[in-house]
Write a structure and sequence with these properties.
- The strands form four sheets. Strands 1, 15, 16, 17, 18, 19, 20, 21 and 22 form a nine-stranded antiparallel sheet that branches. Strands 2, 3, 6, 8, 9, 10, 11, 12 and 14 form a nine-stranded antiparallel sheet that branches. A two-stranded antiparallel ribbon has the order 4-5.
- With 427 residues, the protein is α+β, with helices and mostly antiparallel strands.
- α8 (192-200) packs antiparallel against α9 and α9 (208-216) packs antiparallel against α10.
- It is globular and about 70 Å long.
- It has helices at 2-9, 28-36, 64-69, 98-104, 106-110, 112-118, 143-155, 192-200, 208-216, 219-231, 236-249, 254-261, 267-270, 322-328, and strands at 48-50, 53-55, 80-84, 92-93, 96-97, 124-131, 137-139, 175-179, 183-189, 274-279, 284-287, 293-305, 311-314, 337-339, 342-343, 348-351, 359-366, 370-371, 378-389, 394-395, 400-403, 411-422.
- A hairpin with a 7-residue loop joins β16 and β17.
- It has a domain at 183-284 and 311-339: Phosphomannose Isomerase, domain 2 (Orthogonal Bundle).
- Bound molecules: zinc ion (ZN).
- Zinc ion binds at residues 138, 140, 175, 293.
- Residues 138, 140, 175, 293 line the site of zinc ion.
Amino acid sequence: MTLGLTIAAHFSVPFGYVPGQTLGSVSGARRQSETEGAASLPAAPAPMLLATTIRPYEWGSVTALPDLFGVAPTGLPQAELWVGAHPAAPSSAGGTPLPDLIAADPHGMLGTESAARFGSSLPYLLKVLAVERPLSLQVHPSAAGARAGFAAEQARGIPLGDRARTYKDPHHKPEMVCAVTRFHGLCGFREPAAAADHLESLAVPGLEPWIGELRAGPSGRALRSVFTQMLDERAAPVRAEVERSLASRHPESVHAGIARDHPGDPGVLASLLLDHFVLEPGEALFLDAGVPHSYLGGLAVEIMANSDNVLRCGLTPKHVDVAELVRVVDFVPAALHRVEPKPGPDGEVLYRPPAAEFALVRHDLSGAPHVLPRGWPQAVLCLDGEVALAGGPVLRPGDAAFVPADAPACEITGKGTLYRALPGIGA
Ligand SMILES: [Zn+2]
């Protein structure tokens, strides 16, 4: 795949097929140029091939996405493939950013119901994550919190690109990860008694006051107090002892790995309070506002509300605003919110978390055609095999397309795996 090599060599810039190089495909660009010559005829809405962006965050795997897409690695991390219309890295069709195409025809692109509910922007953002090292320990704001936080930072005149900027947009960011390979991470607080047991197993005298607090309760207040103290710089001597204990007593543990990757980081302590989860391929986890989490390893498809609002607690060189973070975190021990996949016809599997903005469908295609529903803005992403969209492009691993709401009923055929994003209210 010569073309794939070109894609990989430009990991940090938008990539995609050049119109005319994709056999049997009709890219957005070609569709546009064809309609220019026939101004009297309205453009027939059709699935459009998307040029997407891979973000080179340092925690990303150097090889996982290239292996998945069948291209050569570049030697640099390739952390997240973004498919969507978020202003930080919008996908484009035929050279035009998706947000501009949507703005030109919001009802045709998004459909009446999505536009009425979410306005003239795509309500979700679809990603592939390739996690090699821990992501920052983070939490996402509620809808009201994001609106207020964004307005406050705008009023204070903090530029959007500023390092000290916390709120990148006015939206909340519920998210769901769906494992492609075995995928693991930390999510949500342990029960305080279990957290106390965990701390006790480290046999570090400096942890004893926190163990006492966690055992004394009440649970929410104890978690808030201990979590906040753990993030304070005054905890540095205890943190150093904990790092030594993890290395000697539990060298193979998840937390020892975190400490090796982020020595001296406040997140090493705070992460001891969180639950560890493992998703097998096909399993999914929903993360709502206020739930602290960090992904640690594996490959996953992630879908979220169209937002980039992340408040970080640690395991990162990026901006950390502890006061704002502690305000946003929900100090409640909560069981993991797994999303049960629902099998449908023709090898279809639906993941429908409690988020109005998004749902995810996986299509395991084995040759039989399948007709996509109409009336909703749908982004599709191929991760295996080859899948053709009727009236649109042929997708291979790593390729994405957008199916406008007013496109005629779109039939997909081929052998492979396709992920399809749509608003949750349409699933
Ligand atoms: Zn997150």
